[in-house]
Design goal:
With 421 residues, the chain is mostly helical. Helix content is 66%, strand content 5%. The chain contains 16 helices and three strands. The model is unreliable at 1-57 and 412-421 (pLDDT under 50).
Length: 421
Amino acid sequence: MEAYLIQTPSKLSTSSSSSKFISITLCKFPHSSLPFPSKTLLRFPLCCQSKRQPYSSTASDSALSSFFRAIPDWADGVKERGMKQKRVLYGHDNWVEHRSSTRHLRHLLNSLSSRVILSLVPPVIVCTFLAVVIASYNSAVSTHWLPEFFPTLRASSLPYQLTAPALALLLVFRTEASYSRFDEARKVWIRIISGANDLATQVIASSESPADEKLRRIILKYIAAFPVALKCHIIYGLDIAKDLQRVLESEDLAIVLQSKHRPRCIIEFIVQSLRMLDVEAPKLNVLESKLSCFHEGIETCEQLIGIPIPLSYTRLTSRILVLWHATLPIVLWDECHWIVVPATLISAAVLFGIEEVGVLIEEPFPMLALDEICQRFHRNLDEALRNDKMIREHLRNKFLHVHHRRSLNGRHSSPIRDSHD
């Protein structure tokens, strides 16, 4: 009968989280046949920590996960930076360049700077890698590098020929639905700017009283601030304080920034200011009715931002594209062999590219040149105010001169009729 006594230190420090060695003494009783002496000192590593740590993956798993996440994160970063780029309104020079006969070469040379193409890197790499794996496996089977019971991965192309039109229609409908959202966003901003111009014109012509001159200028500033506030409301990451400080006074801006819904706050500024004008009630009602396009624009923009294309449609398109290209090398192997690799790469780049364009324009407002639209609207308001004063003074002098000339001739006919004489 043999027994062993294990002796350990009486106290272990748990204040340190680093790995330490604990000495364990094995005392052997007589009649033992163990190969080590009767008293041997063994050392075992013991990790002493202040509290139990949760399970974590190994360093290699963490590094591998970081590597596989690096490429998608980089592609998403490129895409998001592209979404924040300011768009420009086209002029004559832009249209000349747009329809230039060298546009194809220019677009090809700029491919590596295209955010659409760069965002395709993750799915195209995955599909191409699967094609390489399948081609390598089939080559190993055909050259007998693998046992004979491993089958060659091949399939008939008939299912692909039957489902190809369905995939094409799915992509077309997906892109068309996204473009319809883009077109609706463009039209709603046309209505907003047109309504703002109409309201500004009515305010300028509403009253000729010198006492209302300053109030009219303030109302025009509120009207000019509305498109800017709506732009910052529907596009994430814009600095509304920076954009509005050039339009509104500091006291007004502070009230707007405290509001949760900035565009509606500015509409309230406009309504209260219109009621302070020295105009008749019918004319005031007409002015307030012009604000309906602002309310309609807010609702339409918020719905376009908050309600995407049905997610089931987007998910179905994505799943079909992935399964299509994951099995494409199996279908093309008999006819193409290793050419399935570039064939899969080209097919994935084209079809995923079409789908990517649809996804990008599904959120339409970053695609519109809203900064330049707002700036042009401000310039038009300033010019309209200058022209109003200049044209009013010019016409007053003109008709006073015509009236004075008629009085000298002793005629009292209307100015309009005399102007045709």
